[in-house]
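Morning!

This is the sequence you dropped in the shared folder:
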Amino acid sequence: MASGKTHDIINLTAFPFFAYYLKPESFSGFFIGYMSGTFFLSPDNDIFHSKPNKRWKFLRFIWKPYTKIFSHRGISHIPVIGMMIKLLYLLVFFLLVLTFIFVPLFFLKEYLNINFVELNINLEDILDINNIIYLLKAPFFVSFLIGLFLSEFVHIATDIIFSSIKKLRKAF
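The structure's back. Tokens below.
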């Protein structure tokens, strides 16, 4: 298995080959997605002391439950599925945080003198399925996801190649 530094170098080396085929309007989304996948949302998020988790700094605690739920080289190392699970995990975590913030505010709004209408918070607009579909079809978001998934593919391919080389060395 390759080290964290090796994964970073290989992912960064592969980036220009992928970026060459992008349309200019897709570049920024792809770049942000690919770098996020390389440095923060790696298949190695299932190891608490991994480089990608350490890069989360004070937010590293987010990944502690993830490392308890998923074993290393398990489901997180399955292309597409691993990234989908990480994104779903982060979404659930984010929704829980929002729940813990807004539910008490909703019940304490009279005591705190908060008017949600003045804050211009309209949940119907936020949760409107047409707005969500529009965002998911946006070129930036699609490019972002492609970058995330490609960085994951490079990481997993690197693991497979390094593991195969180790097995061949042991055989001879």
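Headline: The chain has one domain: 4-171.

More detail when I'm at my desk.
O.
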